[in-house]
Amino acid sequence: MLRIGVDATCWVNPRGYGRFTKDMLTALLELDKENHYIFFMDSFTASQAEFPANAETRVIVLSESPTQAASASGRRSIKDMIKMGWEVSKEKLDVFFCPSVYTYFPVFGSAKKIIAIHDVIAEKYPQLIFNSKKNQFFWNFKTWLAVKQADLILTVSEFSQHGISEHFGINKDCIKVVTEGADDSFKPIEDKPYINERLSAYGLSDTSRFILYVGGIAPYKNLAVLVSAFSKLMDNDQYDDIKLVMVGDYENDVFLMDEGLKANMDSPAFKQRVIFTGYISDEDLNCFYNAALVFVLPSFCEGFGLPALEAMSCGTVVIGSNTTSVPEVVGDAGLFFDPNSEQQLIECLRTVVDDEPLRRDLCARSLQRAATFSWQKSATQTLQVFTG
């Protein structure tokens, strides 16, 4: 039996690495009945989260929530990081797993240290992530320390594996890929009245035609191209009923935001055609995925692109940028474009909207492709990494 320690400080974070931490580890503890797990967390996380009953928990009182402290405008307290590391190091562990370098802290002792680096977005596009050179420096130092201390790196796609290997000069054999999964709640819904009831709160129904985006509004998400392409598409009268729906917690997002896009949110003309939902429940999100004409993920870079998989699990067509992990995840079930080319995105949108037989075919392919991913599969892959 192995004693496996886990950094659980990003358990409640609503972004992709938070979902990875919670959903993959929940599936892992359902799968693994042989090894013993100890979750280490801050008091802020402990007060908001429910953890698997078969995991021990250790709560460490910190000066600030790690999620807030590691935001674009903040940095982790050295004292807090040392305190977390000290508490972990007092335990006799065989393995220590940090599911996101975002909340990394140094751990000492003989335990095998496995650090998850989901992407190299901050390394490739620092100007789109950080609001100061100081914060960029602290991020780079923390990530460098994590890489140096790790016995093994875990990541979520071959795209990220290649990027990590190239940027940090690490042999690919030292970087293991564990794919992500969509929650079981994301699936096709046959109950149209239920969809109508949920979407009516946003002025929509299951017959409304809309393009969907889900995620943050950080500059690397490249939403300016999506909004511009949508505006140009709307110049044609045959598309004048289509809306753009953007789902995300834009009020409380701790990452750097696209200020130009944020400023547009209050424009009357913008509000007529674009719906910003703010944070919504998974139940509502499932209805948006089901009712959307197409889901678009225009980012310059993604480590995995979990919203694309969630959309596919609902049978929704995906359009994604070709410079990310999205083609790897979506396969032949979607269309791809150069994120620097507004015209290519417009052509993809027109193709999906105008060609109903193609759209039906891609919807069917999306469901088939999504079925090849699951958190149970991710948990099995992770357990192999832990015990290998």
Description:
- The chain has 17 helices and 13 strands.
- The protein is globular and about 65 Å long.
- The chain is an alpha/beta fold.
- Helices cover 42% and strands 16% of the residues.
- It has helices at 16-31, 43-46, 66-69, 78-89, 121-124, 133-149, 158-168, 192-200, 223-233, 259-264, 268-273, 282-291, 306-313, 326-330, 342-354, 356-370, 375-387; strands at residues 3-7, 36-42, 55-60, 95-98, 112-116, 152-155, 175-177, 210-214, 243-247, 274-278, 294-297, 318-321, 334-337.
Task: Please summarize what this structure is.
With 388 residues, the protein is α/β, with parallel strands linked by helices. The chain is built from 17 helices and 13 strands.
Element layout with pairings:
Elements: E1 3-7, H1 16-31, E2 36-42, H2 43-46, E3 55-60, H3 66-69, H4 78-89, E4 95-98, E5 112-116, H5 121-124, H6 133-149, E6 152-155, H7 158-168, E7 175-177, H8 192-200, E8 210-214, H9 223-233, E9 243-247, H10 259-264, H11 268-273, E10 274-278, H12 282-291, E11 294-297, H13 306-313, E12 318-321, H14 326-330, E13 334-337, H15 342-354, H16 356-370, H17 375-387
Parallel strand pairs: 1-2, 1-4, 2-3, 4-5, 5-6, 6-7, 8-9, 8-11, 9-10, 11-12, 12-13
